[in-house]
Amino acid sequence: MDSSGVTFILTDVLRQFDAATVNIGVFNMNYMATIPPNVTDFVISGHCEADCSTAIFPPDGIRVIQALLHTHLQGRKVYLRQIRGQQELEPIAVDENYDFNYQEARVLTPPKTVLSGDQLIVECHYDGKGTATFGGFSTNDEMCLVYVIYYPATNMASCGSINNASQIQDLVGYTPDSSQLQPKNADPQAAAMKNFLSKQYDWNQANVAKFRDLYTKGSYGAFCAADEKSVFIQSSSAKAYTKYDAPSRCNPQSQRLQQPPTVTNPGTVTNDRHEPWDRALPAT
Q: How do residues 123-143 score in pLDDT, each as one tens digit?
């Protein structure tokens, strides 16, 4: 017999903070997020700009307590990167063996602090299929998002970026004219572009390389939706930063592997990194 269910607990003693959810990443639909056919490790990134966190987050920042990484069937790796100034910090969440069928929310212990002025980047890596893949809601389309739960709550609902449609049209040298548009489609121009990229465009190595450059070096529009504090940046581009240098887990001389942190109380550790020993220990 199914014993699943939901338990609601009511209290008149409120916690100090309310939590909230924000979705971060790529908000491209249709051909603005095109993954070429038969590629490996193709990268598309969504940018939550520092202007957004500056405008909306409190001065001492937010604490991220959970992250759910999300792509569809072509996704292979997902990173939620955190940039402070020109330096990348340890990524907030990483999945280097992403599987659409095994998605789960990752509880961050301890929480990760994101300060006002930090930039967040959702970086998604894809392997292509036999035909071009486009952004969209269908499982056979693609997405690049992270759903973040944090506190204290703000009114930010979403934060990310959108690639410029005209850039892609210029890149492939094709703009649908009125004779090629089918009025029955909800977005006739997008439908015509998808048809061209799927059936007529020559996906040779040089053209695939152009798309790689577009998504890593090209300009994009950025935004964060937060009621009266919403921020819209019409044209931005990826900014240079120093990559986070992850400590080796295979080096036998590594201090982190030789000296795991001291457990002072069940479920509490003295470092702030995610290690196998970070998991709560049973009480004795």
A: 999 999 999 999 999 999 999
